């Protein structure tokens, strides 16, 4: 690789400043000693989209006469006043909507940094930030050096060879010796797969290994390095544009003490309801097992209705999307997309709801003594709490109205009387 082939922070800062001064890519490239195409690629790759609270891309927003008619299926009490609606944006359902796109973004410099109308413009802005670009680059570089270079199909094949003999008491060494031509992997790699939770067996099934204390904590393992391909946030927006009425689910993890149990949270945007599930470890397998359980409990029809689209971050526990997207019969049951690096705001509603969980489970507190019933009880209290943004309804009420109360019964979420709701750590004190 050529020396200084990658841009550094100081060079990115120069790009940001010169864009603000409306310099061309050629001028910036000459100043940095880089090809103009390098500068162009850098800006287009790492530009961020910014939306104000008043964002409305409709070309007819100033002369609109469709208020109260956009959402024909709306059953909310204030459906006749779209301007005050807290559930959807009027342009998402309006039959007269025509998107207004700034033509300046279609040609260099492709961003709004040097635009004189940037402050007053109400459209979506594309901005290049040196710090954000550097963070995104570092994350991409780190991810490229992690992970396991094996396809899900190959992983299933290896699991079929390794797991049955292990459950019969055989050692990894003996299995590798007797099946060397079929496995074609060394013992260390097999142990790494077991540590990462990628096989049906765990370290508990290896008697000799559980005798010894782990010397150091290993970095999280990324199951599939290419899992983000075709599942980026841009792909997510494209999918929503083609399916505007589709419900979106946000997914995340909530950690307690490092190395201990962890929560998987699932947030339904259309009702603000959140589910949480306790896991022994923060692995990709623990996530897929939760979804297999939900699929079995809800049934195919209910599951595919609720989980049509899932948006999550780029944590290592979410790097096996195929195990979530497809059931054991290889039938698709959902679609997964990923936020951009360092862009937790792209699933901000989920992050905000985590604050209510943190009231009961403060950061760095241990989750090891919590059970599935404890978490279900906690979420019943949280989901029964009335929200101003829901027109003083609770997520439990709104979810039941949209999807029916029987689904919440399947999930164990109960309605708690308003005067009995407890949002303090005392609820789970044993």
Would you mind describing this structure in some detail?
There is one protein chain. It is built from 16 helices and seven strands. A five-stranded mixed β-sheet has the order 5-4-3-6-7, sandwiched between helices. A two-stranded antiparallel sheet has the order 1-2. The longest helix has 16 residues, at 152-167. It has 430 residues and is α/β, with parallel strands linked by helices. Helix 1 (9-20) packs antiparallel against helix 4. The chain has three domains: 9-144, no CATH class; 152-211; 233-428, Ribonuclease H-like superfamily/Ribonuclease H (Nucleotidyltransferase, domain 5), CATH 3.30.420.
- CATH classification, class level of the largest domain: Alpha Beta
Q: What is the annotated CATH architecture of the largest domain?
A: 2-Layer Sandwich
Helix content: 25-40%
Order of helices and strands: HHHEEHHHHHHEEEHHEHEHHHH
How far apart are the termini?
A: 59 Å
Can you tell me the overall shape?
globular
Largest sheet data: 5 strands, mixed
Using the coordinates shown, work out and report the CATH topology of the largest domain. Nucleotidyltransferase, domain 5
Strand order within the widest beta sheet: 5-4-3-6-7
What oligomeric state best describes the polypeptide chains here? single chain
Strand content: 5-15%
- What radius of gyration results from the CA coordinates? 25 Å
The CATH superfamily of the largest domain turns out to be Ribonuclease H-like superfamily/Ribonuclease H
- Which stretches are poorly predicted, pLDDT < 50 over at least 5 residues? 75-80
Number of helices: 16
Mean pLDDT value = 83
Count of the domains: 3
Structural category is alpha/beta
- The strand count comes to 7
């Amino acid at each position: 690789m050529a020396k200084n082939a990658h841009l550094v922070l100081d060079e990115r800062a120069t790009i940001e400043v010169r864009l603000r001064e409306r310099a061309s890519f050629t001028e910036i490239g000459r100043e940095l000693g880089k090809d103009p195409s390098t500068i162009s690629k850098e800006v287009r790759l790492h530009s961020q989209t910014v939306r104000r609270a008043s964002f409305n891309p409709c070309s007819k927003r100033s002369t609109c006469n469709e208020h109260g008619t956009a959402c024909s299926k709306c059953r909310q009490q204030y459906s006749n006043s779209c301007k005050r609606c807290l559930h959807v944006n009027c342009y998402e359902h309006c039959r007269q909507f025509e998107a207004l796109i700034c033509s300046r973004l279609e040609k260099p410099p492709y961003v709004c940094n040097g635009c004189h109308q940037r402050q007053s413009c109400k459209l979506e802005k594309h901005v290049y930030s040196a710090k954000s670009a550097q963070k995104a680059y570092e994350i991409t570089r780190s991810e490229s050096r992690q992970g396991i270079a094996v396809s899900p199909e190959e992983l299933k094949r290896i699991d079929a060879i390794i797991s049955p003999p292990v459950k019969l008491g055989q050692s990894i060494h003996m299995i590798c010796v007797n099946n060397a031509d079929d496995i074609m992997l060394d013992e260390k790699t097999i142990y790494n797969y077991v540590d990462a939770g990628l096989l049906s067996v765990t370290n508990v099934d290896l008697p000799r290994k559980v005798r010894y204390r782990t010397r150091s904590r290993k970095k999280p393992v990324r199951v599939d390095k290419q899992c983000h391909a075709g599942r980026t946030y841009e792909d997510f927006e494209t999918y929503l544009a083609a399916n505007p009425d589709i419900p979106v689910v946000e997914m995340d993890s909530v950690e307690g003490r490092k190395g201990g149990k962890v929560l998987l949270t699932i947030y339904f945007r259309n009702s603000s309801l959140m589910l949480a599930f306790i896991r022994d470890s923060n692995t990709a397998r623990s996530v897929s097992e939760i979804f297999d359980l939900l699929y079995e409990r809800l049934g195919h029809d209910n599951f595919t209705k609720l989980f049509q689209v899932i948006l999550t971050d780029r944590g290592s526990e979410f790097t096996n999307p195929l195990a979530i997207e497809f059931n054991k019969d290889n039938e698709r049951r959902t679609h997964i997309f990923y936020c951009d690096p360092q862009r937790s705001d792209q699933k901000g509603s989920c992050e905000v709801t985590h604050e209510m969980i943190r009231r009961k489970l403060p950061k760095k507190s241990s989750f090891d003594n919590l059970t599935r019933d404890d978490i279900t009880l906690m979420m019943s209290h949280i989901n029964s709490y009335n929200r101003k943004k829901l027109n003083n309804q609770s997520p439990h009420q709104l979810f039941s109205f949209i999807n029916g109360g029987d689904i919440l019964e399947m999930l164990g979420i109960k309605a708690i009387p308003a005067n009995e709701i407890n949002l303090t750590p005392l609820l789970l004190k044993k």
